[in-house]
Design brief:
Elements lengths: L2 H7 L11 H19 L8 E3 L5 E3 L4 E3 L2 H8 L2 H17 L22 E9 L4 E9 L10 E6 L12 E7 L6 E6 L10 E5 L4 E7 L4 H13 L57
Antiparallel strand pairs: 1-2, 2-3, 4-5, 5-10, 6-7, 7-8, 9-10
Helix pairs in contact: 2-3
Length: 285
């Protein structure tokens, strides 16, 4: 190649011709091979394998290579890197979720100052025949930013009393006070708008209204008694203020007169209704 040809090809005076794209690719692979030989240990590569023909095989991409340098250049290529990313994504998707280690929540230690004051009011709605309880708990020394809590506890959860399925427990808690519990009937709670709780931050009183659903058997018995005119059990009869007279005794034959052996008829000529004189006893001499 003449000097003018080299100038036209873009080469400098005294140097060879410009390298083609193929020569640049060969040179790049060679540099990558040398770098890989210095930094990568093939004995720890899980996809490197030498077959019985003396060739090197990539078990991930299923390619054959004549020498180690060719294999190392392949591992730095785009195809091998894409297969590695696909393999990692598939293993992450198929890997089962491991259970999280049990992390115990740190319990806050608070010095208890005693039990709070409380007031319980029994309520009854005659229209719906529904009974309810109103709890009012006083927390004057409650911690700032703390709201009282309540929950229901079955008789089989507690260990203080004998287990009885007829009762359940209602617990109230607020730091720094002790937890208090109330033993209530194990009836179904009406969780409609009648069940509500309210925390008065000014008076420090926590109120909870707990309504119970009326039992259908008792409602039917009371309605039947009211239809028959009978009073519910446990209530006295209403007083009679000049109304209808009391009921007469049952009619029937009059009872026979009773015989009195000490009766003596009055003497003849005695007026009717007079009392006979007492008997006279003679003294013996």
């Amino acid at each position: 190649m003449s000097f003018m040809d080299a100038r036209e090809a873009g080469s400098k005076p005294g140097s060879g011709g410009a390298a083609s794209q193929q020569n640049e690719a060969i040179d790049r692979r060679e540099r990558l091979r040398r770098l890989a030989l210095e930094t990568i240990d093939l004995s720890k590569d899980p996809y490197f394998m030498r077959n019985h023909l003396g060739q090197y095989e990539c078990r991930l991409c299923l390619t054959l290579h004549n020498n180690e340098g060719n294999y190392l250049a392949h591992t730095q290529g785009k195809r091998h890197q894409q297969n590695l990313a696909k393999r990692a994504a598939r293993e992450a998707a198929e890997k089962p979720a491991l259970p999280q280690p049990n992390r115990r929540a740190t319990t806050k230690k608070t010095v208890k100052i005693g039990r709070p004051g409380y007031k319980v009011t029994k309520q009854y709605d005659p229209e719906t025949m529904q009974r309810s309880l109103l709890f009012q708990i006083d927390y004057p020394e409650i911690e700032e930013g703390t709201k009282p809590r309540h929950r229901f506890m079955s008789a089989y959860e507690q260990r203080k009393e004998a287990q009885d399925k007829k009762f359940q427990f209602l617990l109230f808690a607020a730091d720094p006070y002790e937890v208090i519990a109330f033993k209530i009937p194990n009836s179904e709670v009406d969780r409609s708008d009648r069940l509500f709780s309210y925390w008065d931050q000014d008076s420090k009183v926590y109120s909870l209204q707990l309504p119970f659903k009326p039992e259908p058997e008792k409602i039917a018995a009371q309605q039947a008694a009211a239809g028959a005119g009978a009073l519910p059990p446990g209530l006295p009869p209403p007083p009679n203020f000049g109304g209808a007279p009391p009921p007469l005794p049952p009619s029937g034959p009059a009872p026979p007169p009773q015989f009195n052996p000490n009766f003596r008829p009055p003497p003849p000529g005695a007026p009717m209704g007079a009392v006979p004189p007492p008997p006279h006893f003679m003294q013996q001499r």
